[in-house]
Amino acid sequence: MGVNIAAINMEWLLEYLDKNLEDIKGDYICVSNVHTTVTSYEHPSYCSIQNGGLMAIPDGGPLSSVGRKRGYQNMERTTGPSLMGEIFEISAEKGYRHYFYGSTEETLELLYKKLNENYPGIQIAGMYSPPFRPMTEEEDKAIVERINEVNPDFVWVGLGAPKQEKWMAEHQGKIDGLMLGVGAGFDYYAENIKRAPEWMQKSNLEWLYRLVQDPKRLFKRYLVTNTKFIWNAMIRGK
C-alpha cells in the first residue's frame, strides 16, 4: 500500500539501535499500524513522511502477518509500547537519556513518577507538553533548543498519528536525539490505561481490547481502516 514497513523483529531492532544510536540521532522511527498505513495509502504526503524516516516498524499485528505471508519469515509485531519497555529496562545499564514530548502535564507528571518507580536509575532528561494549537516559529525554536540542551538519546513523541509523524519529519536533522512516535505509549507507562493481556497481543487482538476501552473514539476508525486494509493488502495484495 506504499509504506515501506521494516521486515524486522524486536531482537534485531534492539541490537540495531544499540550499535548505531550515535549515528542515527536526528532521524525518526515511525511506529506503523493499520490506521497509519491506510492513511498513507490515501494521502501521498503522509506516505512520504512514513517512508522518509529511518524506518517504519510493524506495530500492527496485521502488518507483520502480511509480511510473513510475503516471505519475511522472521518478521514479528514490534509495538511502540513494547519497544519503550525494552529500552527502559536497559537504560540504567546503558546510560540512556530520555526526553518525552507530548500528552498533558498531568500525564507527564504521572509518567515521571511511574518510570522512576519501575525503572530505577532511568535518566529522564526532560518532558514537555506542547500547547493544543499550532506553535509559533519562536516557540518551536525554543523547544528544539531546550531538548538539545539536555542531550537526550531517545526523544519519545506522544502526539498521536498523524500529528506525531508530521512533527518528527519537520524536525528531522534538528533534534539531537532519535525521535520515535509512540502514540498511546505515554498513557500506558503513566498507567492511565492498561495494555491488553499477553495472549491478546500475540493473537493480534490488542485492537479489540483498546476498542472496548474507548469505543466512542475508536469504533469508526477500526471499522473503516480495518476494512480498507483487508481489501487492499490481504485481498488485492497491494
UniProtKB/TrEMBL annotation:
Question: Has the keyword Cell membrane been applied to this entry?
Answer: no
User: Do you know which InterPro entries this protein is assigned to?
Assistant: WecG_TagA_CpsF (IPR004629)
Recite the UniProt keywords alphabetically: Glycosyltransferase, Transferase
Q: Name one Pfam family in it.
A: Glyco_tran_WecG
Report which superkingdom the organism of origin falls in.
Bacteria
Q: Which GO molecular function entries does the Swiss-Prot or TrEMBL record give?
A: hexosyltransferase activity
Give the protein name, as stated in the record: WecB/TagA/CpsF family glycosyltransferase
Which organism is the protein's source? Mediterraneibacter faecis
